[in-house]
Amino acid sequence: MDTGSSLSWVQCRPCTIKCHVQPAKVGPIFDPSNSSTFRHVGCSTSICSYLGRTLRIQSKGCMEREDICLYTMSYGGGWAYSVGKVVTDRLVLGGGETTRTTLSLANFVFGCSMDTQYSTHKEAGIFGLGTSNYSFFEQIAPLLSYKAFSYCLPSDEAHQGYLSIGPDSSGGVPTSMFPGTPRPVYSIGMTGLTVTVNGEVRSLVSGSGSSPSPSSLMVVDSGAKLTLLLASTFGQLEDAIIPAMESLGYSLNTAAGQNQLCFLTESDRQNYLQRKPPPPSNWSALPVFHISFTLGLTLTLPPKNAFYLDDILGLCSSFARDDYLESGT
Question: Which of 310, 192, 203, 311 is nearest to 260 (CA)?
């Protein structure tokens, strides 16, 4: 699931170049020959033109003899990619033990991947939840009584998460999202960012509390590991976090560079590169972050969500500086 991209794709047979073996719980690689409703998208179709024009597809080609539209998608600066054919098929959602409602889409547009490079080698493909017309969510949206989606990503595979399409029954508080530009992604209005350090609340970003300005829009990207901040906001974060971590026996690890905040204890430094830094003995003592959004929603990030352990750099903040950001977060 990726809110930072729009084109959905699955690994397909025959995999003419490279595909990874899918775990049993994911199911077998999709075989189009078993589907009577599977169709290729032609090169001269409006679908093919739209995808090449709007989805930031790095290169779009065509199998002219077969009249099949092709796509190329890359992720994370090129560390992962999918290359294949643009196709359609009937998509049915729901009908399982936990879902009463069944949604059926006759001509769902997606990618049939023939060359896949992905980091964990566990995925069957990607559901793109971006804003373009042919994202998974935008194609399903006309079938919904309430245009919304929500999700909860578990910390590991031993725990269960969820993706909810339509009305949310989890009891969560909704907030508005805005189409991002120039990329086809969603943004959310951030009206405040505070951090609680040793019981003292410090404001890093403050807004009107209701209507976000362009400078306070956050791109929602489920595939991003870090939350990127403006340099000025990150500077305020440094001023608040570094003294707080020093009071807990941590010191800044300058090897992480100026765009990240990572910390080591004295014991970590003595054993640097010889063993992995151990987790904090008391996570609850670390700073707590609070992010406020439009419609009065406040998200509290406990320390285990705001910090992560790096095998070399130590205990790192999940917030990082992006010097190329001109506005937003």
Answer: 310
- For residue 266 the two structure tokens come to 């004295």
Nearest CA to 241 among 301, 286, 302? 286
Average pLDDT for 221-229: 85
For residue 157, the enclosing domain spans 9-165
Residue 137 sits in a domain whose CATH number is 2.40.70.10
Of 221, 225, 224, nearest to 3 (Cα)? Answer: 221
**Boundary of a domain, candidates 165, 188, 221:** 165
Q: Is residue 50 part of a domain?
A: yes
Among 128, 54, 130, 52, which residue's Cα sits nearest to residue 86? 52
The answer to whether position 52 is within a domain reads yes
Number of domains in the chain: 2
HSE value, Cβ hemisphere, 13 Å, CA-based, for 207: 21
How far apart CA 144 and CA 251 sit, in angstroms, is 51
Last residue of a domain, one of 127, 145, 165: 165
Residues composing the chain: 329
Same domain (yes/no): 94, 133: yes
Say which DSSP state 280 is in. Answer: P
Peptide bond into 179 cis (omega under 30): no
Decide: helix, strand or coil at residue 159: coil
CA gap 299, 193 in Å, rounded: 10
Q: What is the pTM of this model?
A: 0.81
DSSP H helices in the chain:
46-54, 136-140, 231-246, 266-270, 303-306
**Contact by Cβ (8 Å): 111, 7:** yes
Say if residues 189 and 211 touch (Cβ distance below 8 Å).
yes
HSE value, Cβ hemisphere, 13 Å, CA-based, for 6? 25
User: Lowest mean pLDDT: which of 55-64, 188-197, 207-216?
Assistant: 207-216
